[in-house]
Amino acid sequence: MSEISFPPPYTPLARLHEAVRTRGFAVLSPADVARLAGVEAGAFEELLPSWNRLEPDGYLRDGGPYRRRRHSSFIVENETLALQPHRAHWQPVEYNALHGGMQRWFEPVEAGTLAQPAWSRLILALASSCSALATDASRWHVEAHQFRIDTADGIGRPTPEGAHRDGVDFVAVLLVGREDIIGGETRVFDVAGPDGQRFTLDAPWSLLFMEDARVIHESTPIRPRQGAASGHRDTLVVTYRASGFLGGD
Question: For the domain 13-241, what is the CATH code?
Answer without folding.
Answer: 2.60.120.620
